[in-house]
Write a structure and sequence with these properties.
This protein is α/β, with parallel strands linked by helices. The chain has ten helices and four strands; from the N terminus they run ααβαβααααβαβαα.
């Protein structure tokens, strides 16, 4: 929300909650990444949003990549900030270690928000979603995304580190890479000013030119 609020000063901004999370309805079963992408596409249709610049963080990037690869007509551009999952750390044990390290670098208020979100979604849904995230191969979708792309990474992000961000940018046909100095994983919450500026520059320079 901090980044969305800053972008809303210049653009129409929508921040949908995925099914089962936030204020959305909870489906009977947990949706995988492809199903979440389909849900996002259906939501865009329901809101009469033809094409949009899609901005995501962490798992949100996986959902965006799946949608962009399958429904390119809906995507004017994508911003992948702290995109998961780094293939070099694709295990529950490694992800847990990285999450613990990142927690020491994030704002304390974010930890409280995440705890509340975990309680609202429920442990079962949260655990299954994490498993689906690990199973998803975002790298399989990236080469098929031909919309302009911006890959953003915090230099202190242990979950999706700069080495992985550089690999992602190289896989995307039309990508730029931006590193935010000192930022951890949730740079959309911790460094919203920097991310909003990067998104604005991307829209004006790359998306508007297409």
């Amino acid at each position: 929300m901090p980044t969305a609020e800053k972008l809303a000063r210049s653009y129409p901004v929508f921040a949908p909650d995925m099914p089962g999370f936030g204020k959305s309805d909870a489906p009977a079963r947990t949706l995988n990444v492809l199903e979440l992408a389909d849900a996002l596409a259906a939501w865009m249709d329901a809101m009469s949003i033809g094409r949009a610049v899609l901005v995501g963080n962490s798992l949100g990037c996986q959902i965006i990549a799946a949608l962009a690869a399958r429904s390119p007509h809906k995507v004017a551009g994508i911003v992948l900030a702290g995109a998961t999952v780094d293939p070099a750390g694709r295990s529950r044990r490694e992800q847990f270690k990285r999450l613990l390290l990142d927690a020491t670098r994030e704002r304390y208020s974010l930890m409280l928000l995440q705890l509340r979100g975990l309680c609202e979604a429920g442990l079962k849904r949260s655990w299954q979603t994490a498993n689906y995230a690990l199973e998803d191969r975002i790298e399989a979708n990236l080469p098929h995304i031909h919309a302009p792309a911006l890959v953003v990474c915090g230099t202190r992000d242990p979950i999706a580190p700069p080495t992985w961000a550089k690999q992602m940018a190289a896989m995307l046909p039309r990508a730029r890479l931006a590193l935010v100095s000192g930022a951890p994983h949730a740079l959309n919450y911790t460094t919203p000013e920097e991310l909003a500026l990067l998104v604005s520059e991307f829209i004006e320079r790359d998306v508007s030119a297409t």
